[in-house]
Amino acid sequence: MPSTLPGRELVQNFLKDNDIKITDLAKMYKLSNQDTRDYVSGRKTNPAANRFILTVISDFNLR
């Protein structure tokens, strides 16, 4: 599976630039704060984490 690091960095920068907290993102996607933090940070890189990152990129039209 290809690395999702560039996608994670894209999401991290988007959150930082728009002053969006991980807790807010977790609520939007009905995930736990810890899972959301782990997905965005790259601590978890399982298929669910990768799908989440791709979904956020798609939902917010990040490029």
Provide the gyration radius in Å.
10 Å
Helical residue percent?
55-70%
Overall pLDDT? 94
Question: How widely separated are the two ends?
Answer: 20 Å
Number of strands: 0
**Number of helical segments?**
4
Poorly predicted runs are none
Element order, helices and strands? HHHH
Shape: globular
Share of β-strand residues: under 5%
Structural class: mainly alpha
Map the helices and strands:
Blueprint lengths: L4 H13 L4 H7 L4 H9 L5 H13 L4
Helix pairs in contact: 1-4, 2-3, 3-4
Task: Describe the overall structure.
It is a single chain. Helix content is 67%, strand content 0%. It has helices spanning 5-17, 22-28, 33-41, 47-59. The longest helix has 13 residues, at 5-17. It is mainly α. The chain contains 4 helices and no strands.
Quick recap of the structure?
The protein is mostly helical and 63 residues long.
List keywords for this structure.
single chain, 63 residues, mainly alpha
